[in-house]
Amino acid sequence: MSLGSDLVIRLKALLFRRRMERELQEEVEAHLAFETDARCRDGMSTDAARRQALVAFGGVERWKEATRDARGLALLDGLGLDLRQSLRALRRNPGFTAAVVLVLGLAIGTTTAVFTLVRTVVLSQLPYPAAERLVRVYQQNSPENRFGLSTVDVQAIEREQHVFDAFGAAQRAEVALSGTGTPERVVVGRVTPGFFAALGVVAAAGRLIQGEDLSSGAPPVAVVSWRFAERSLGGVDRAVGRAITLDGVAHTVIGVLPARSTDLAGIRAVAWPALRLQPPTRRGPFWLRGIGRLHEGVTLEAAANDLAGISARTFPEWASSFRDQSARLTPYPLRRTIVGDAGRGLELLAGAVALVLLVAAANVATLMLVRGSAREPELAVRTALGAGRGQLIRLLVSESAWLTLGSLLTAVAVAAGCLELLRRTGGDLPRLEEVALDGQALGLAVALACVAGILVSLSPVARLLPARPRRLRSVRGGTDRGTSRLRSILVVSEFALALPLLFGAGLLLTSFLRLSQVDPGFRADGVAAVNLALPRLRYPDEASSQAFFRRAEARLRELPGVTAVGLSTALPPDDPGDVNNFDLLDRPVSEGTAEPVAAWSAVTPGFFETLGVPLLDGRLFTFEDTASTAPVAVVSSGWARKYYGNESAIGRRLYSGGCRTCPPTTVIGVVGDVKYLGLSASAEAVYEPVVQAGPSRMNLLVRTTLPDAGIFPALRSALGGLDPELPLEPVLLRDRLRDSLSDPRRWMSLVTGFALAASLLAALGIYGLMAYLVRQRYREIGVRMALGAEPGRVTAEMMRRGMVFALAGSTIGVGLALAAGRYMGPLLFGVGPRDPRLLAAVVAVILAAALVSCWIPSRRAARIDLSAALRSGE
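Given the sequence above, the corresponding structure tokens read:
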């Protein structure tokens, strides 16, 4: 019989066992009937003929058994018996079984979840046709500094480029949505027609924005997301043709995006209205995202050269308002720009979970070695009763199969839970809605479980391969040097892997604590903020907007418990409102070089009192600073120190926004530093009066003594009386301050959790090893103590042996920790990636854990029953 046909028969026996049994019975009966009939024709009676037929077969049962073996049924029966016996053995040791299943299940499950997240966010292509050809275009004047595009840039690219199949621009904005129920603030992406064409997105219903939608006199139109159409417009089929009101302007819905197209080029929006670019009067502001699809075969370098030529041709025309001749239009792969800094955090998380998986595997392998040594008497008994090496191997492999299955089921449940938790707590993590426990994730879990199962079964099976298990008398107190050496290596590796994880967690924890101690520059307690975006339809000019803001301030000052009210285009600690360029009249930049930039916000006189920002020099704005008076500004102390050192900044003048024909702005005051670009960034800021800036979007800030539960209803009631159609979503500045730490808190919490798990596993590993060594040397310790050895000395000697493993692992781990710290540098604040004090503290902690894990079994060794220990060697 060939190998292929034999394999087919055995597979049939495994998959169609009942049918094979039935066919076997029918075949036996057919042969007996044939032999019986042949003897009956020779004159024998039926009974005698059947007896002769049975004799000729040598007995039906024997013939059946031979046939069953040939068809694979006997092997299947043996395998079934092994599986039942191994399951009973594991049920007799529930602690061991639960430990292995939980350790492997948790490690494999978290590994599957994290690698699924990394694969989706970092490694996989974006969900667009030929996504590798998509780029985002920036203005860039140094390797570290890149920013968005201006109207001038977008129009120049659309007019002169030779490398894109399609190019479009988008602007992310928060607007007031009304006409679909309660007014609310939503995110929209204003786009040019080329945006959808570049991404290769098609409409699920209706059509997308086209060139004629931007023509003069064309009605405002918008495309909406599938989810928004289902939630607010009565479904996808009924959405097209409906009207939605954005910032007071009615837009006709002309199309619905596919269900999965909620995040386009990094903008997660509910609606996509047409972006109408007005004729520019200066080079800035740089507020647009440029997205292009490269011609097939065009390289990134070729695109960069083409865009550099556009930059060179555009610069002279607008040099008066943008003096940075070094800035170049530069393309970057879109996937890389969407992932951004999150990629490093996810890679760190993947490394942490991989280390935990290795530590867990080493821990389980150590458990299996210890259990294998303890089972030597059992295997010797089975050998004495006639069990062959193959049967013993099958039994051990069967146990590993059950453990693998249990670990796999646990891992799938853990992975699903972890991914759901990540979706709920991932915040602004890019591409989070694409993460799912799909076939590839399940395949990874199965592969990891199978590898773990093989590793789990290797150590006990390897002991049976060279020779038969030792005889009954030799297994008691025996020592296998190879197995002991392997256990030691596994424990050392656990400590070597746990230490860099613990050091990384210590770095992130220290960084988080120092970041949380940074002074934000304002008093957040008791301050609430409401974003007011006035729709142009009801507030068509600056006068009407300013009138509303004045009424709002006055109305809120009348509320009981309100002590101060102010308005600002910025909202600390991470919303600068605007970042503007400027040039100092007494210290101008060189011709053709970049002007400095700073966080730039328009405020009312009450803003500084509301936030508790102190005046350090000069004066604050007053109501005498109006649109008709000379432009003035208040600067932060950080700004003053950077540009004037110990000199006074009062009276200094500057040009803002690159406008040389505008009247220069005079600095009239210096105030305390406020963080507007995040707690880890510098606090250089410039303030100008609202009446001189004329914004239509402001943040209204209120300091009050009201309890938190009473602040929001009071604000909604007061402001709703002025304009009931404005969406009002107040926030507490204290909550914003807390949320600004959410990303470092998330990475710190995750890595710390994995580090603690790895450290606990390492401690359990050395505890298990020491407990095994004590049990292995039970009689030797008894003899030594009978000869007068002191219990303390026995304890110290055992602990010294265990600490050798911990020290060896920690020594290796220090090198790994230093490498990990160097990689983590960009994620840290206020702590060096090789902080020696922190590294020493981590080594001390992990050695202390090892000391406790060694002390418990070592102390037990000094308390053994001498008579029982001496009898154990008989």
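The chain has a mean pLDDT of 81. Try to locate this feature in the token string yourself.
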